[in-house]
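User: quick one, fold this
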Amino acid sequence: MSATKEEPGAAGQNDRDIAFGKAAPRSAFLGNTVRTSKYTILTFLPLNLWEQLHRAANVYFLLMSILMAAGQYTPLFESSVKAFSTASVLVLMMCISAVMAALDDLSRHKADAQVNSRSAARVDLSSGSVVQVKWSEIKVGDVCVVKKNEEVPADMVVLGSSDATGRLYVETMNLDGETNLKGKAAVEKTQTEITATTSGDVEKIGKMVCEGKVVAECPSKSIYSFKGNINLSGTTYPLMADHLLLRSTVLRNTAWVVGVVVYTGKETRVVMNSRQAPLKLSSLEKATNRCMLVIVVLQLVMTIVCAIMFTSTKGDFTKLWYLSSGEEEKLWLPDALAYFLTFFCLYSNLVPISMYSTMEIANVAQTLFVSKDVTMYDKATDKFAKVRSMNLVQEIGMISYVFSDKTGTLTQNVMELRQISIDGEVCGKPPSAADPPPADGKRRFSGAEDVANARKKLGETKVAKFAEILAVCHTVVAEKAADGELKMEAESPDELALVQAAVDMGWSFQQRSNDQLKVIADGKEKSYQILGINAFTSARKRMSMLVKRGDTGEYVLLAKGADNIMMGISTAVPGYLKGQLYDFACQGLRTLVIGQKIMPEKEALAWVEKYKAAQSAMTNRDQQLDELAAQAEQAIEIVGITAVEDKLQDYVADTISKVKKGGVKVWVLTGDKLETARNIGFSCSVLSDNMEIIIMDTDPENATGSPSEQMDKALSTAMIARRTKPVGLLITGGMLETVLADLGGQFLELGEMCDVVIACRVSPSQKGEVVKLVRYGVKPSPVTLAIGDGANDVAMIQEAHVGVGISGKEGTQAVNAADFAISQFSFLMTLMMVHGRWNYRRLSKFILFSFHKNIAQCLQLFTYTFFCAYSGTSLYEDWVRNSFNLIVGFPVIFLGFFDRDLDRKQSLADPEGYSVGRLGQELNIGKMVFHICQAIVLSLIITMISLLSYDAFAVSKLADYYSWGTICYVCLIVAMLYRLAFMMTTWNAFVVLALVLTFIGLWISLFVCGVLTTLMGGVVAQILASPLQWVCMLATPLCAMVADLVLDAVSLAVGYARGKISLGTAIGRAVGQEGAQGRGERSVGWKQQFFQQDLPSLQRERNTKTVGGGLLCSGALLLLLGAVLMSTASVPMAQIQYAGTELKGRPVDEFTFKKCNDGSRCNIPFKIKEKMQGPIYVMYSVDPFYMSSNQFMKSTSISELTGTLGTEEQAEADCISKLKEDGERLWPCGLKAASLFNDTYVLMRKESKQVNIKESGIAWDSDLKFLKNPREYPTASGIKWLYERFPDITGLEKDGVRNEHFAVWNRPAALPNTLKLWGIIEEDLAAGEELNLVVDSNFPVAQFDEGKKSLVLVKKGPLGGRSDGLGLALVVIGVIGSAFGVVVLIAHFIGSKKAPTSPSDDVIRDV
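Assistant:
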């Protein structure tokens, strides 16, 4: 190394000066602590929040929460949904995601702490000792010692090593993924001093007296270049990449090194190159977003319809005295817009808020199943498959294109020199599958005998010339192991194979130093002085070494490289060369052409001087070295050829064959020559004999015209050939370069017509460009997968939708850049065909069900809008509504865990079934619309059942808004559990347990809602005690089952009509009892069964037998339930209507109509038709009366009803209207209290004897417990109490709000047909008995359109009142189901003898 007198700062304007030695000051640069974690305690909350707000759904619900709050707390518009109902669930879901992110980041924190706490040796020059410090304590300017097999703690310039020549070797696997060794060198000046000081003993390093200053370039990402200089005693020496040891590299084959730290922490090369893989959005998420558009359209349609209905009917409702008092706060927005927002908020739950969080949980489980799959465990490397991108576990079930590397991916990357050609004489045996493995596990070159014959035929000189190049021209490092055996490590397996083969030819490489290399040739030691090495690069595709022979003093340039490159720099191309290269390539062998050039001493020395100058250059160093290499590598004499075999991995051909059967196109991108790639293509089933193979090449021997002409011809050939047979394309890198630049569109068209594409001689960047072209060019956009094992595959792995890294022999860079890591290519078959298929179908069902459940819920809200004066009241109380996603979101997780239509063995045996995911058949807009229709049917079923049972529930005191809405909610939940079970094909213990726990959780959540909401108190107990509620709960899923199975029956009929299936066959196949390995045995132990997804399970089949049986059973049960309900028609019932137009067709025994004007007392005689035994319920009916109107529901003060007098301001905030009357404050305030029903009734027998009507026991005990009068009642002045407004109500002055009539009224009716209990008659009423009703008609209904009032006498039965209407509906549905069931079963028994023998006929996708 030459020294100069230039200034230290000459290396660069912004470079750093680093003093070292005894006088070195403390460093002012960054510390050596490295943090790869994403969060800290202070930044976790804001950063995670910011990340989660990048998710569209979270932003949507945040905006909805803000909008709801605006409607709740301002006069902007009226929101019927409280903001907390959405915000609380949003916060919970975001908390779940945050916890998962925190747990993930915690592992990074632990890894960081482990790395930063590692021990390193630092030289304390002041005391002359070597002390142990943590990595985090190392600073720029420190002098550190690294021993053999230790990691380098920071980037440092090497001052010296244990080798007196200053040579050392490092393994860079942690940096660039390569396992080969890289040579480094110490600064010559400091190496000399260190050698003299230590005499090879590192413990004496403290005596080093050198001091100086390093000028280093600014921190850079480049791991292959370094510019700087070192100043020692006023003399400056240049520094280059060979002098820089990088953090995380491992010292090998060298006892120790000493260096000065120049970069630490975040400024080290490895940290600056660390970056997260590009964020990849799952195609399933994109499909979900498209489905979301359908949902948004549905939400807008529902919102617009309701807003139009409200604005068009607003006048009809605002004139009602009990809904408007003139005191309401005027809305800031126009009514149309205001109520558009009201309904938009109401239906916001159409978007499933819990879907994304629960999907993450399902993804975690699927990730676990992949990583624990024993069929993807590689015993040789002791590695399972690994998932690095959880959001892509379903993406592997949707692949349309597979892009594969060859070497190390399809092949084993275990190189063996099979054949050589020395001056045209071929030695060695071609590869054969029958080759027995060597006894010692080490295969030798098989051509030793042929080489001996070649010596006789060609002479020793030619053979020695060939063997010399193999033994000398390389960068292999040799080291003697403890047992004395020579251990070699090389930069590539090819190079190691050549050096080991040279041993079998009599030339044994022994050792190398900085500039010396020794071999033993035919028993004699030969030495070579290394003058220069022109390294192999992907651009140069060759390497050469200039050496001086120790025995003759000759200067000789030894070279080896790709055939096309070597032929271009040779003096002459031997006649045998091309033919033998073709023959070797056809055998699938990797070829290199080797040669040499004798250089005159003067020319050689002049070149060496230029070479040293270029190495010391501060600018354009690499360019100068390449130019010098090109100058030397001219007029090369070709000596021969080497042909190395890289064997295929096990089951590669089978894997590719099945992938292709799944409709996936396979593209192989390799650096091999065309003939080699073609032969490998046939051996691994990428190409086949019946395939039309098109070749596009720039080589004159293969070229048939210009690139555009070849493209036109290829398109024409492919278009004709694809009609009768598959088409394959072989294209070389040279042609690809032109095609990508100028003919990209035509190439894409050609690629789509081809079943297979093999690109040869491609560079790493071209691999990425090809993947990018297909990914973004093909329409509709396909899902692409790239698989490789080396650093040269990183570009295509990161460009593809899914990247798969092979953890093979080329390091970990491909694995680190990939989304999945496997150890063998054959595992791709299980990854795609088994886990990919399962996960895609699971997540598709998961997403569809998530939308389905929310659509069904919102359709219930939409339907209810027509019964609440179009005011936007939610059918469910806010806390109940709030719990929906939490309750139903739990069991759907298990669908994402376990559901599968085929078992492992069947999935592998049916690769054609993979097309379901590839074509996106399980999740698309059509599927979304279908599930919307199913949700509409389910919503109509629940609406029908709830409406037809309303009067009966009223008799059971369960027709109030809170109770009836909760009953609808329970029916919805049970229907959702049925729907989930129906969608699943796999039922195991976990699934059943999840469904049971969900049902239990439903009641627990309702109980909690009762604690949180006053008027929900007691609802659970009342509902559980109602037999009718259980009947409705059972009838709902049975009706839905009939609808679903009728659809299945129609599908079977359509399939039969189209000839797709035969009668009696299954729509979906059952999973067999094959074990996790697919070999017929079942895993042992439930844990292993769980992880291998091999739990004992019941697999639901959908065939003519099960569909018919299901219809018959569900129909029979509905007939039974219908019969029970129809029996309630015998419940005695009498109705006396005294206001409004006369009712027609009422299902009562005795109906009497006599009009009684408002404010009048009327006598109405009537007769009891059938005997009514006591107790008899006396109920009043007001129809229509919209107690469920949003304005009516909101206008109340719970604080007042629970015993607080409160202030006028509080009353105004709670009630909005009906605050004062005649200047006095009303208590309690609000529309509900102001409209208390105050008609009174007296029943007289014919003999003027009054029938005793007990007006106690009519309210819920739970209501009477929470209703309280204030302490000031009834003495406070300025207050107009309830009894003063309604003096006709018995006991109202004494009881106040605890009066049972008020308690009954305080529970708003769910429907306009307000039917409430007024009293109870304990005595019997005889058949034919004549009674006289004396009614004081105080409650005004005259202004109602069609407003009616009635008194109803009914005998409460076990199921409440009459529900025969519901019974009739169930009977009709039961008859339909039974009839369809009988027909389908008849078809099954008729067609069972004609069932297909092929199981593929049974699959629903064929229908």
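User: anything notable?
Assistant: DSSP finds 46 helices and 47 strands in the chain.
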